[in-house]
Fold this sequence. Notes:
Blueprint: E1 2-7, H1 10-15, E2 23-26, H2 33-39, E3 49-52, E4 55-56, E5 67-72
Amino acid sequence: MRVRVIPYAELRRQILPKGQDALWLELPDGTTVGDVVRQLDVKVLDRLIVGLDGAYAPLDTPLHDNAELTLVTPMEGG
């Protein structure tokens, strides 16, 4: 299955090659949100918010073909 990963904020710099807006991954059936997070070696798990097709998704959520996975870290400051 193919999944589109769109990271935001600091994750964009960590995950994406320069100049890209999204990353397409070819994954086996049964892959979960957590599997992708581990594969991408996301270092901010304690602050990570994950969306799947526009809705909040826990790490054990299974993915599907053509899913859109968004990875966000909350902004700080005022």
